[in-house]
Task: structure prediction
Amino acid sequence: MLFRMMSILAFALIVGVVYAGEPGEVTAEWTPEEVEQCRRSSSVGPADGGGLTLIDRDLIRYEVGATVHAAYRHLVAERVTDRTWIRKDFVLEQTACHGAVLLINHSGDARRLEVLFNGEKLPFEVVHRRARGYSGVYPEDAFPEDHDLHHLNGQPFKSWWRGGWQEVEVPPELLREGKNTAIIRGTSDQPVRFWIEQSVYPNRSAVSRDGGRTWDYERLSANQNLNGEYVIRLLLRRHPESGWIESEPVDLWPSVGETDVRLPSRLTSLRMDAAGPDAPEGPELNALVRVGPTPTYEPETWTAWADPADMEGGDYRYAQWRVELAPSTDRMNAHTLTGVALTGVTEPAIEPPDGLRVTGSEVDQPEIIRPSHVFVHARKTARLDLLREQAELDEVVEGHEPGLQQAQRISQWIRSLRAGNNSGGELDYMPSWDGLLFWNFARPGDIGRMCTTRCAFFAQCATALGYPARPIIWSHAIAEAWIDDLGGWVAFDQSGGHYYEVNGKPASVLQVAKARGNPDLEVRRVWREDRKSDPRPDSNLAWYGRFFVPMRSNFLESDEPQEPAHGKYSFKYDGHLRWLHPDREPLPWFRFTTSRDGDIEFTCNTVNLTLALTAEPGELNVQLEHDMPNLERFEARRNGGEWEPVEGSFVWAVRAGENTLEVRAVNAFGRAGRVARATVTAAE
Result:
């Protein structure tokens, strides 16, 4: 295996080319800072001193918290009393850790509970949350420590995010290899509810209705009709079992002179060097590569991940690397990746043709940023078209400029549909995030009109008009839409009727969160250009320090995966991607987190192009990649002419002098995305 461990190297991301009739060599290198921008699993995070390593948090859970519909909260819960006890079994192969915390999600007064772990009673500090009755909740760090809001009923005050959760420290010496049992029992006949997720494997939850004498794993809940899992988790301060880091594909074809035009070549060998500090004992870093002919991975044409030493040559243009991390045997130490060098050796596949030759080039195109985790955009379906028709969305945005104005119009229109918040309506029912259900039933006020419902409805309405959109949630729920003209996501509040700007530019929630503590960044709420709020103080910006993104917008196609009535009760669903603020500790009961900006602010509606010689003089091959949801077609415009449909790979005939080419993608809703532009100068 062509892999070596080295001391920390100062790499620069450079593609260097050596070609003079001999085999070409292309080398791409990543510094520690550039490694940190690579896509990675949620078990990987920044390392002290730079680079990436496994996080020091191993969450053991047998459910994801996709449970409890508000309308049925009494039916899908266990009522724990002095007679009805519950238990959760955790199976551990290893017990070494720096610490352990049992994480319990419940509804009710936790002072009525006792917790035993492997037979030992554990003391714990009962945590409350406090929400204010007007406009949101208090962030945990917005008030001085001695403020009376930090105490409730004589107990420490915690933020909204900790509502419903109790942390119980478990001495590591109590952990055992094999089964570990946590028992939770009441101290009176006053019940405390525990939610149940209806999974049947691995059956790690049980109930006793006779004070712990007998246990039943199959008939959970007050109605004794559920076989599932209580939302109880165990956090161990150790490294997870594995993690991965991936690069974007690298173009291995050498450039023609000093231009952006590539020479078609055949890959003969590939070498990868991965760098890090001295490694701990245990499994080594596993360095892998795969190659293919297209600028993004396609399973039909790319190879599988393989040891670089085992790679065979072929007609491959692009290469991508992957490093798999594993902890030491006791999972107390882990490797750190600080640098990578990828070198491909090629030989020309064609001779540069005689006649017209390229003497200069310039490519101007927006960067494509891809998330580490798949985001599922809503497709153009019959139900989405029906929402557009029934809600008369085209009439809603009529007279408003495409982009920011239309998105803001949709947001303010949704606000006008129904005043009020946090209500289940006359039916006391919080609906799923199905926009057609909301449109046909929620407007009279019969069912819920929470901010979560409104933000999901915005995402569907914006998508129906061709704008990628998604909910964004902290203690309040809003939504973001992708605006091409601005090249980014913009946050819109459907409850307040405003969007956000940072230093006068429409902004995303992530940009707002990063403005806290920075005197050079000014955040305002904007209703219209002539109506803006005063700059928001840091105490307000503290709210945005914790937020999460549901990684899909296709709620009209499927209710799941989701937490029913999301936000009606405390947050427990671990299927949404949570932003990990660099100044805050992660919430211990969630595994799916990220500190990588690109996982939150990935791009949309973007096309990139690459140019290569062909065997014919005056002809260049153009290859396209994109991140356009609901792609309908590509279009190209040559030398300022008309836009015409093209394939993802096509031939561009150039003439002597300056030639221009523009390309873009068009989605199924008829909206064109951002333009990539190439200028090529050719001479006889």
